[in-house]
Amino acid sequence: MVDVNKLVRENVLKLTPYSCARDEFKGKTGIFMDANENPFGNLNRYPDPYQKELKEAISKIKGTPEEKIFLGNGSDEIIDLCFRVFCNPGIDKALTFTPTYGMYEVSASVNDIKFIKVPLNESFQIDLEKVKPLLSEKNLKLIFICSPNNPTGNCMHHSDIEYIIANFNGIVIIDEAYIDFSDKPSFIKMVDRYHNLILMQTFSKAFGLASVRVGMAFSNPAIIQYFNKLKPPYNISTINQKAVLLKLNKVEEYKNQVIKIKKERERLSANLKKMKITEKVYPSDGNFLLIKVKNATHIYNTLVDKCIIVRNRSSVIDNCLRITVGKRSENDKLVNTLKTIAI
Ligand SMILES: Cc1ncc(COP(=O)(O)O)c(C=O)c1O
């Protein structure tokens, strides 16, 4: 079993975290004269720093105890916290499998951490033989695995992910931002088995709350406590906590939306496959499709001229566009517009 405490940066171990008014008095009733708040209004009080009510609700739907849950200002805050808890700037390293979500590399640069990029194979899967020697790389602290992966859309093989977690003496972060759109099982229960695992999910995709900025990390309580130690005291606003709670009271609505999006994904995929401009539509476990075309930049620019915005991913995968699945009418508009584009 990996001893997580041994991986944590010295300054984080020694750090005395900021103690806010709500850390010192946790009660909900009384005359509050301890936080220099304005006594008037509905939004005059600081939020609950540890989002207790929200975590209780998340705990119920995810089947994970509250002490194993951390909430960040989007998954992006959690990615940054992983670097700040575990990686010494200028010394430590992180690794991922490319092409993948760009924030891992950006966060590594912000924190002055060397970033190792191991290319996925032609099926967009992890090449385990390439990874094995790297698992003992000096000063390698973090491995990011995005599954389902953005922008390729596929899940990584479970056995490959588990091999890495079980054989790496550092922290593995699995980013499951798109897992609700997949029929494959989540790794969430593996958090109980592996202490070096941080599993991330988000309210930005299937729950339709991208503007609210709430990301989830599930991990062992020691790692959750290090995140709590470093985070700004009030990282999730009261309004945002309430927005998520409201959504969690309407689980059926979110589940129906996911069903609709998955159906639309298959319909859009079938339509795109029939088109002359399409060389390949990759299978997807996300709410988007990656397609290979003859001239991605030309198609991208023509679509923009018609006010349809997709993502040109040609810089990371040759001649590929990433298309988010929209509403039925939006998908039809895209397909009809693509039909008019000459190549
Ligand atoms: C794989 C992946 N992880 C995380 C995020 C960002 O999540 P959040 O909105 O919770 O910061 C994205 C956004 O596109 C993503 O593609």
Structure description:
- There is one protein chain.
- The protein has helices spanning 4-7, 10-14, 21-24, 52-62, 75-86, 103-110, 128-131, 158-167, 190-193, 221-230, 238-248, 251-273, 296-305, 328-339; strands at residues 69-72, 93-98, 114-119, 140-146, 171-175, 197-202, 215-218, 278-281, 288-293, 311-312, 320-324.
- It is of the alpha/beta class and 343 residues long.
- It folds into two domains: 4-249, 3-Layer(aba) Sandwich (Aspartate Aminotransferase, domain 2); 252-339, Aspartate Aminotransferase, domain 1 (Alpha-Beta Complex).
- The protein has a seven-stranded mixed β-sheet with strand order 1-7-6-5-4-2-3, sandwiched between helices. A four-stranded antiparallel β-sheet has the order 8-9-11-10, with helices on one face.
- The radius of gyration is 22 Å and the shape is globular.
- Bound molecules: pyridoxal-5'-phosphate.
What is the molecular shape?
Answer: globular
Q: Average pLDDT value?
A: 96
Ranges with pLDDT <50 over ≥5 residues?
A: none
Q: How is the largest sheet built, in terms of strand order?
A: 1-7-6-5-4-2-3
Which superfamily, in CATH terms, is the homologous superfamily of the largest domain?
A: Type I PLP-dependent aspartate aminotransferase-like (Major domain)
CATH class membership of the largest domain? Alpha Beta
Helix fraction by DSSP (H/I, runs of at least 4): 25-40%
Rg calc: 22 Å
The overall number of domains is 2
Order of helices and strands: HHHHEHEHEHEHEHEEHHHEEHEEH
Oligomeric state, counting identical vs distinct chains: single chain
How many beta strands in the DSSP annotation?
11
**Named CATH architecture of the largest domain:** 3-Layer(aba) Sandwich
Largest sheet: 7 strands, mixed
**Span from first to last CA?**
56 Å
In CATH, the topology of the largest domain is named: Aspartate Aminotransferase, domain 2
What structural category do the secondary elements indicate?
A: alpha/beta
Bound ligands, each once:
pyridoxal-5'-phosphate
Q: Give the amount of beta strand, in percent.
A: 15-25%
User: What is the number of helical segments per DSSP (H or I, 4+ residues)?
Assistant: 14
